[in-house]
Each structure stands twice: as C-alpha cells, then as structure tokens.
Write a structure and sequence with these properties.
Elements (H helix, E strand, L loop, with lengths): L1 H13 L8 E5 L1 H12 L4 E5 L6 H10 L5 H15 L12 H4 L1 H11 L3 H5 L6 E6 L7 H10 L4 E5 L13 H6 L12 H12 L1
Parallel strand pairs: 1-2, 2-3, 3-4
Helix pairs in contact: 1-2, 3-4
C-alpha cells in the first residue's frame, strides 16, 4: 500500500506542468518504499536516509538482541518476528512487544521482510545518494555496505555523530535514544548540504 501511494504521488507530480523534476526520498523503512517506488516511476534522483540494506527481519533481530531485554521477552520477540517474516500472523502479542508487532502492522512488516533492498536498488537507474549516520543504533554499516553492493555508483555521505534521526548524538546508547524525543534538537549540520549538493548535481 505504501509503495502504491508513493508511486501514485510521483506519477501525479510528474504530470504537473510546474514540476521540473522528481526526487524520491525515504528514511529508515521508508527508504525501502522509496526504492520500490523509484523502480516503478522514473525519477531524477533517489535519496536513502539510514536505509536498511538487508531484509528487515535481519535488521530487527539485531535491534532486539541489542536491547538487553529479559531472555523470555527476547525469545518471544524473535519467535513472533520469524512467524511474521514467513507471512504468518500473531494475534496474541505481549504488551511489551505490542508497539513492534501489533496486528495492524504485521502485514507491512511481512512485506518488508520479503524484500531484499540491495537487490531492489540495483534495478533503479536514477542517480542515488546514500546517507548514513555513524552513531545510528538501528541501521548500521552492514546495511550501507549491502546498498553499496547493489549500487556501487551511488554517492555516499557518512555523518559522524549522527544518530538514526540524523541528530548529533552522544556515544552512549541512552543519550542517543533520548534525542529521538527532543523535537527542537537540530539536524546534523552535514545533512542539508549533502542533499543540496546531490540535487544540484542531478540538475
């Protein structure tokens, strides 16, 4: 559904006489949506911000294992993840895991887990920019490496100290995640210049 919506939006914009170019941009799981939409609708550029380069179930498993959850909760989370990734559904989700696995998002998760972003990005011909924060605790170097394998010609920008929300974050985990809830915290100063350079280069 998200890919359909994004593709329709791009197609609609392309038909407008006041639009000179199309840029598809996605952050985190939205990067996977942007990749697939750019594969359907010709765009002038593709920007992926902290985009997963591996199947989502592999990324989520790493995230859960890094959370220091009680073993029983971790094993239940991984069990649900395996079921959803295989296309199944879990109705009775423990309250502690409801945000990640509530029934309303399981369909979306299943579709994301079925996708190999590195393979999909290789089918996109548009100029591509990959932006990765070096203090991102959710999407990391393995994902950037995988995306670069799919598109070795992509422009790559890494931002020291930037977390998953592209804010300059402290090295400790608690302080990094705390910034997620600080809306006034500025974006990393290298983010917008990277966008501008890429957009200027794509013409």
């Amino acid at each position: 559904q998200y890919v359909d919506d994004a593709s329709l939006a791009l197609t609609t914009l392309a038909a407008r006489p006041d639009v000179e170019g199309l840029l598809a941009m996605g952050h985190s799981e939205g990067a996977s949506v942007a990749i697939r939409a750019a594969g359907r609708v010709p765009v002038d550029g593709l920007v992926l911000l902290a985009g997963p380069g591996r199947r989502l179930d592999a990324v989520l498993q790493e995230q859960f294992e890094a959370m220091n959850l009680p073993d029983a909760v971790l094993q239940r989370a991984l069990s649900i993840l395996r079921t959803v990734a295989a296309g199944g559904r879990v109705e009775n989700v423990p309250p502690a895991l409801n945000m990640a696995f509530r029934p309303s998002v399981q369909g979306f998760l299943a579709s994301e887990c079925a996708m190999d972003p590195a393979a999909e990005i290789g089918r996109v011909r548009a100029p591509t920019l990959l932006v990765q924060g070096l203090r991102d605790l959710q999407v990391g170097p393995a994902d950037l490496t995988a995306l670069r394998r799919g598109r070795p010609d992509a422009d790559v920008v890494t931002l020291p100290e930037a977390n998953h929300m592209f804010k300059a974050a402290p090295p400790e985990r608690a302080g990094n995640f705390a910034l997620y809830r600080v809306a006034p915290a500025p974006l990393h100063p290298g983010l917008l210049p990277a966008w501008v350079r890429f957009i200027d280069a794509t013409g």
